[in-house]
Each structure stands twice: as C-alpha cells, then as structure tokens.
Amino acid sequence: MYFLYTVFASLGFFFILKWMKKRRYFTELKRLDGKTVLITGGNSGIGKETAVALAMRGARVVIACRDQNKAEKAVREIKLKSHSLDVLHMELDLASLRSVREFCKNFLQKEKRLDILINNAGMPGILDWTDDGFSLCFGVNHLGHFLLTNLLLPRLKECAPSRVLTLTCSSYKYQKLDFQDLNYNLLPFFTYCRSKLANIYFSQELARTTEGKGVTSCAVHPGFVQSSWTVHYSFLFRMLMQVIMWMFFVSCEIGAQTVIYCAVSDEAAKHSGGYFVDCRPATLRPFARDAGVAKKLWEASERLVKLV
After folding, report:
1. How confident is the model at residue 19 (pLDDT cuts 50, 70, 90)?
2. Of 41, 75, 132, 199, which residue is the least packed, with the fewest Cβ within 10 Å?
3. Domain, as residue range, for 103
4. Per UniProt, what is one Pfam family of this protein (predicted)?
C-alpha cells in the first residue's frame, strides 16, 4: 500500500510540474522575407531560439554580442537549424556605452534596413560595474538597450512599420524605482527587479514617443527559462538552480514563443506599449503603468547616457 501511495504521489507531482510548465506555442507561419532583425544576446538561450525561428521565416538576422567565438559558433548553429544563410554576427558590449555607439555606427553603415529590434540580452543581479560606472545589471539591462534603441530609432522609422521588443520579467513587481539611486547595488536581486521594471517603463515611453510614426514597442516576459544566467554565481548555487530550473522552469525554445509572437503577429502590433506573457497581452501592476514615472525615467536615462 505504501508503494502505491508513493507511485500516485510521484505521478501527481509530475503532472503538477507539467501543468505549471505548460505554455502556448506560436504556430503562425507568416514570412519575414526582406526584413532585417537585430537580436542582442542572440548567441544563446532565448535569443538564439528566436534567431532560428525568424531566420526560418526568411528574415535577415543579425545577432549582437561581445564574445566573437561564441557568436561565430552560434551563427553556424542558427544557419544549420534554420536552413538560412542570411545570419551574421556583429560585436556589441552593452556594458560599454562607447561599444554601443560604435556598434550603431557600424550597423547603420552596413545594414540598410532594421525592421525588428529585439532587446534580449540581460544580466542577473550581481555586484559588478560597467565601463561607465553603472551597476552591471542596470547598465546592461536598461541603459545599454536604451542608448542602442535611440541611436537606431531613425532607421526603424525609415523602415516602418517596425517593432521594438524589450525582454523583461514578472519580478518587476517586487521593486519601484528610486531616482536618487537608480543603480541600487546593495541587494543584487532587487537591482535586477528594478532593471526589469525600467524595461517596462522604457517600452511604454518608447510607444508614446513613436506614436503615429510606424514603430510599435512592447515588453515581453518569456517566463522563467532554463538559461545560462547562473554562470555568474558559485558552483553550489549553480547546482541548486539547475535542479530548480529543471523542475519549474521552461526550455529556451518554449520561452522564445512569446518573443516570436510579438515579432511576427499582426495582433501583437495592435498593442503598442503593451506587456505580453504566454503569447497574449497581460495586465501590469498599477505602479508599472505610471506614464509620469516612465517619462521621468526616459529623461534621466537620456542624461545618464549623454543623449542630451
């Protein structure tokens, strides 16, 4: 009898885990021939899976990351999986505003189109700093992408209708912004939460500033994904998180589905400024829909990256 209880309990636990990890798949086969897609951090995880899916639909895909060896390997794998030769890599270090500016200059010289920009690269909350003195998490997740998007915005407008997708996380709900100290580096997890909230405000303000100009913007929560973010932590923490991620997190392929949906779907384009989860619009906490805070963050970010 004890054995039967154990079997039923194990089966029940298994089905609960399977239900918790259940997600929608985006199956629309809309083509992207003639369009150019730029994906930051497209050499691994969600970014790589997104690159494969969009290359399969005929898009020219540019993956931007700082490690050339990893990027070249990823480009070969993306080409193989997507059966597309129109995939390339350009060097970009989002932790350096100088690198962002150089990348944008090179991209605009070499690429005549930009139809979809996917701000995918991200850093977990760790105590480290960018070349410009910002916390690494906030500097990469928000400021690097903020500058990148603004410098590429003229090309996005030229190629309208175009889209900007910014990956965020539901952990935004655990923090609010402190404009006296946007870096907030004492508790790494809260730094991460603030950077993800900043991604949401950025996406909303971008939608407002580009309204009527053919550029749509949305924030995407891909779910909790089995990615490689744990490499920045200790061995014991990595082992613990591997078990937790195996049990509760979804694969990168599944996590990429909402990103692909927002990049391709005509329905998603109707919700500029929206927040998407599991291939559909989702509701944000009231404080994350504050247009005044979004505008204030935009203006503060312009000063920090020296756009004004």
Report:
1. very low
2. 132
3. 26-225+253-304
4. adh_short
Q: In the numeric block, which tokens belong to residue 243?
A: 């078990």
pLDDT digits (tens, 9 = 90+) for 207-224: 999 999 999 999 999 977
CATH of the domain at 77: 3.40.50.720
- Tally of domains within the chain: 1
Among all residues, which ones are annotated catalytic? 192
| Residue with the two structure tokens 């291939």 | 279
- For residue 233, tell me if it sits in a domain: no
Quick one: how far is CA 224 from the chain centroid? 12
Residue 225 confidence (pLDDT) above 80: no
Asked if residue 230 belongs to a domain, the reply is no
Q: Which residues contact 192 (CB under 8 A, 6 or more apart)?
A: 124, 125, 137, 141, 169, 171
Look up residue 253 and give its two tokens.
Answer: 């392929």
Q: Which residues neighbour 145 within 8 Å (Cβ) at sequence distance 6 or greater? A: 40, 94, 119, 121, 166, 199, 202
Q: Residue written as tokens 């003195």?
A: 133
Residue 270 gets which letter from DSSP? G
What's the chain's length in residues? 308
Strands 116-119 and 274-277: unpaired
Residue 268 lies in a domain: yes
CB 197 within 8 A of CB 230: no
Q: Please give the residue that has the higher pLDDT: either 24 or 257.
A: 257
What pLDDT score does 237 carry? 55
Q: Do 83 and 59 touch, CB atoms closer than 8 A? A: no
In a domain, 5, yes or no: no
Counting residues of the chain whose pLDDT is more than 90, the rounded percentage is 70
